[in-house]
Design goal:
Helix content: 40-55%
Strand order of the largest sheet: 2-6-7-10-1-11-12-13-14
Distance between the termini: 67 Å
Bound molecules: zinc ion
Largest sheet: 9 strands, mixed
Number of helices: 15
């Protein structure tokens, strides 16, 4: 056990999926021929004026409500000045002094309990373009500005995270909330969510240590690896009695190491100043209320409720709460009060998950209703149909809205427990399997299983296996 505490803060950038870019009418979409989706405004040509896309503000405010933030009804945009070839204006329009959302928190389930991480702020800003370095040995780089002006929110956590596993759980929670609100496509492979990771170590009772930052880590598992590496690096230095210097480091996920980019001596000075071309963002109380009303019960809260109140397993709660449609369906089933949560869960985690996976479908594609699901579970618990027949019925319910009763009738799936029918089947089993009968009589008890199995087969799986076994046993004497 290390004598050091790990302190982690995350800055998470998420691309918003508005129709157009943040300050112009160019389409907000990924890819395309380089520099095909640009206009004088998003190229930052002289004489053009940016006009703020109001959907960007609405999306960010909804995220603010989801993370329990205070929303500033008047906020401002600022210029963050720096030079880089993917930023032709040589400044990024962002929010520094008065961000849209401040002082929030997010709760999530981690390691058997509820964890709360405070949110310092959520602000809006424009994304930069992309640099592409020549791959055929030429000493040149190309600039693609299709991404320039794509709207981003930056979610800045307080340094409340204490391990790489917890940071991973936090990021998964942020991602699932973004998906629930449908404000980000969350395509990690397209860079829709990216993280800057701050790590410092300190001893119990001592003030925070010097932090090091790793920029633009683009997958959650890479964040986890980058943190573990950084904790190891700083621990070694501290144990050797050295001092941590404030650094920005570049995480190389292929090498599994980070490399020094710059130290505090030449730390960034962005010379923020207010953006003069865009008026302050004002949001009325009425509009704030309308936006607050669009925020549903969120997946992190559902997950905590399922684990705590319904006492289902974390894995089940996570699977169900992750999909808004499935969670709504599950809630509808629970509210009927007909069966315990775990009866629903075993079907959802078993047959349903298997079906969705095999057919590459999501829950919104299936036709199952809470009522027919209840009828199906009832038919099994009342011993009207066998479990194997129920699986068949379940699949049909997924494909078409229909009644359980009509499926059972039309396919003749009802269990046969009529003794006279089963007696005659048992007779046939014994006549056709003389060898097994004599084996059984010689003490080979496993011959019984074979005989019952044959009986089930003759009944096409409809016989009640318990009664079938009982009758065969009595006939064997
Ligand atoms: Zn444009």
């Amino acid at each position: 056990m290390s004598e050091f505490h790990t302190v982690i803060g995350l800055e998470t950038h998420a691309e918003l999926n508005t129709k157009s870019k943040i300050f112009c009418e160019c389409k907000n979409e990924f890819g395309g021929k380089p520099n095909s989706n640009v206009c004088p405004v998003c190229l930052g040509l002289p004489g053009t004026l940016p006009v703020l896309n109001s959907s960007v503000v609405d999306y960010a405010v909804r995220m603010g409500f989801a993370l329990n933030c205070k929303i500033n009804s008047v906020s401002r945009l600022d210029r963050k000045n720096y030079f880089y070839p993917d930023l032709p204006k040589a400044y990024q329009i962002s929010q520094s002094f008065v961000p849209l959302c401040v002082n929030g928190f997010v709760d999530f389930w981690y390691d058997g309990k509820v964890r709360r991480v405070r949110i310092d702020r959520i602000h809006i800003e424009e994304d930069a373009g992309k640099l592409m370095h020549s791959e055929n040995g030429e000493d040149v780089s190309y600039v693609d500005l299709n991404r320039y002006g794509v709207p981003l929110i930056e979610i800045v956590s307080q340094p409340d995270l204490t391990s790489s596993g917890e940071a991973y759980a936090y990021l998964k929670t942020i991602k699932s909330i973004l998906r629930y609100l449908d404000i980000c496509d969350c395509k990690m492979q397209e860079g829709s969510i990216r993280c800057d990771v701050n790590v410092s170590l300190n001893r119990e009772g001592e003030p925070f240590g010097t932090r090091c930052e790793m920029k633009n880590v683009n997958s959650f598992s890479a964040v986890q690896r980058a943190i573990d590496y950084e904790v190891g690096r700083q621990t070694k230095l501290l144990e050797a009695g050295e001092i941590i210097s404030q650094q920005t480091r570049r995480w190389d996920d292929i090498k599994g190491e980070s490399f020094l980019m710059r130290t505090k001596e030449n730390a960034d000075d962005y010379r923020y100043f207010p953006e003069p071309d865009i008026p302050p963002i004002k949001i009325s109380d009425q509009h704030l209320k309308e936006l607050a009303d669009t925020v549903p019960e969120l997946p992190n809260i559902k997950l905590i409720r399922y684990v705590r109140d319904l006492e289902i397993r974390y894995r089940e709660a996570e699977y169900i709460s992750d999909d808004p449609e499935l969670a709504a369906f599950f809630d509808a089933c629970i509210s009927t009060g007909k069966f315990p949560a775990k009866s629903y869960c075993s079907w959802i985690m078993g047959e349903l998950a298997k079906y969705l996976n095999a057919k590459q479908k999501s829950f919104s594609d299936v036709k199952l209703t809470a009522d027919s699901f209840n009828d199906l579970i009832g038919a099994v618990s009342d011993e009207i149909i066998s479990v194997s027949a129920a699986k068949k019925v379940f699949e049909m319910l997924l494909e078409k809205e229909q009644s359980v009763k009509s499926i059972i009738e039309s396919l003749g799936l009802a269990k046969v427990s009529d003794r006279s029918v089963l007696e005659s089947i048992a007779e046939q089993v014994l006549t056709e399997n003389q060898k097994s009968v004599s084996d059984y009589k010689k003490g080979k008890t496993n011959a019984l299983g074979f005989l019952v199995g044959h009986g089930m087969k003759l009944s096409k799986g409809k016989a009640d296996p318990v009664i079938m076994k009982e009758i065969i046993l009595s006939k064997l004497g």
